[in-house]
What we know:
The protein is 34% helix and 22% strand. The protein is an alpha+beta fold.
Amino acid sequence: MPTLQILTGPLKDQQINIVGERFVMGRERDCELVLDIPLASRHHACFYKADDGWRIQDLGSVNGTLHNGSKVRDAIVASGDKIAIGNVIMVFSDGTPVAKPLAPSKPQPETAAPVQDAAIQALVQQMSQRTKSIGREMAKVIIGQHEIVNQLLTAIISNGHVLMIGMPGLAKTTMIRTLSEVMDLKFNRIQFTPDLMPSDITGTEVLEINDATGHKEYRFIKGPIFCNILLADEINRTPPKTQAALLEAMQEHRVTAAGHTYQLTLPFFVLATQNPLEQEGTYPLPEAQLDRFMFSIYIDYPTAEEEEEIARVTTRKSKVELQKVLNSKEILELQEVVRDMPVSNHVVKYATRLARSTRPVGEHAPEFIKKWIHCGAGPRASQYLVLAAKGHAVAEGRLLVTTDDVRAIARPILRHRMFTNFAADAEGMDTDKIVQRLLEEVPEPGEKDY
């Protein structure tokens, strides 16, 4: 049985057994290991059993979780590994003997922080070349759509989900599948249909009978959601009950089925597609689920030159070999860099002002917003504007986030969080045009704002 040996903190010298396939640690009393310390979050981190062994996952804590001295979001753990939450240090054991005794922890040299900073700078600077490499690999299969590819990459390193809307035949599915191959991630596709059930997504329990003993027990068979990139094809063709099966996975990276909770292996993204033309037999996504998607990306028709190239290339026999550019470990490292990247108050104020300007009830809402919008973007829009702006900067190999980065990603973040009224529909105004006008008229913060 896996165990934790507590080295420091209120539970010092105690040995804790890890029971079950998910073991949560935090301040809340419903946690398997209650850590009554100020630096622990309510549900701070958890150990969980995955296909590749035991893993440690940070559950969005404020102060982070350290694995062998490094802050992690999701990582494999082995016997002898040290986990630190606040002032509580514990040693994990999977039940097998540790090869060598634990050495006393040594103080980190003074050069450790600069080395880490240098590594982060090198990682971000490499992203500019990697972004270009991903674009080149994608271009072997996808003709044009360079901006869409960049937006997908920005969402992934910002740890966000994407809703892609476009007419049939615009390579939405092919684009997502190709991206998963270039990034060396486990990919699954679900074709959403009216008769799809939640268990078809999350998984189901089957009854197993031992022929020798007659013993019966239920075994959970994981559904297609247990992957790194999930393509939810034509997501609006299934009823809301089935659509809702994605909500917990998208927000908390876990699945609850038959009374048990299963952690998803990170990174995890939902890339959904939707056909804007056909309305018969479709179920519009509820606003709560729309809000879970960081980006809503519209895919337009290719240019005349691109369409000629598509017709030429796809109608001949050819074999494309794609090179792997990023793996899951590197993506998780980039997500950590994006989260930890500092951003100026000027950028935060501008992003927040932009989101608040979409609300017709706000005192600073422009007149055209009060005229055309009946419901604006919520606080999650402000969060995503800052987070995606940082991701956009990293994708370009920069450590400096500017208001230009906010403007670059404002349209895909705000377009599905604003809802027009009859006046806007009558005048032919859609959310894209309204966001563009916001970008032109909402000023950046000035001296009086500080």
